[in-house]
Amino acid sequence: MNVARTIRRLPLAILLAVAGLAACSKQPPQALGTLEYDRITLPAPAAERIVAIQVREGEQVAAGQPLLQLDPAHTRSELAAAQAQVRQQHEVLAELETGPRVEDIDRARANLASAQAQAREARAYYDRLAPLKGKGYVAAADLDRARAAAGNAAGQVAAAQAALDELLHGTRPEQIAQAQAAVAAAEAQASAQQVLLGKLNILAPRAGRVDSLPYKLGDQAPVGAPVAILLAGDAPYARIYVPEPQRAGVRVGDAIQVFVAGREQPYAGKVRMIRSEPDFTPYYALIGDDAARLSYLAEVALGADAAELPAGLPVRVEFRGPAK
User: Fold this and answer.
1) According to the UniProt entry, where is the signal peptide (predicted)?
2) pLDDT tens sequence across 109-125
3) What three-state secondary structure class fits 212?
């Protein structure tokens, strides 16, 4: 009886096994992408000729290593002019802080004494002519000219006195503040030229590989044009496009396997970034029914075992289920 019962149960066991195999053979959801490096673009700081290139395309460089040199002659001249302007403004400030010279004060006093003497003479002449007007001995025009000369002499005295007082009071604080501001502006201009001169020796900001040198020796690149492009990072990362149905199960920090074209064994990776805003799926990442869906850009960091992989290789990741 036990044998008959076992025989009756065989079809059910076979069906379950077949169903299990069918479930295992179903391809899991996946996403496609490419291997990428962090791209660093180094622009030309000035429109100068390239006078030296110390690296070649594809070369591995260290942080701070010289890449190429732009002609520094013009910038050095600009720096020298800016430094001369700094010295001039410093001397102007020193002159204002020192105040007027003793000789200038003595000259102002002499001018005041001369003006006072002329004023006394003009006043005395007018005083002598004034009583004669009533007797008809002096023309009215002559008296008016004498009066005007006396008034003009008095004005000259006031001007000379004011000039002397200005020298005696010294330099105004506002003038010193303006001179200090001029010194600061000149120093800032000189510092800017010094920084620009240093930038003409283009260095690698990070360790990486030289991807492109668009200009050759002797070329003059315009300001802002890329003169060197680096691929930085110890290893590439996978830039993938997560289909909308799998987005809820992918989180930053999830471990994931990355299959690289031309490599049999997958590489271990970890999701380091995933966009919150969806994007349209690029043409190379269209998969079946997902072709009409939006996807979410994500980046998967790879380990040191992927350091020798070149950028641009197609990759594929599989989603085994929601992240735990």
Assistant:
1) 1-22
2) 899 888 888 988 888 88
3) strand
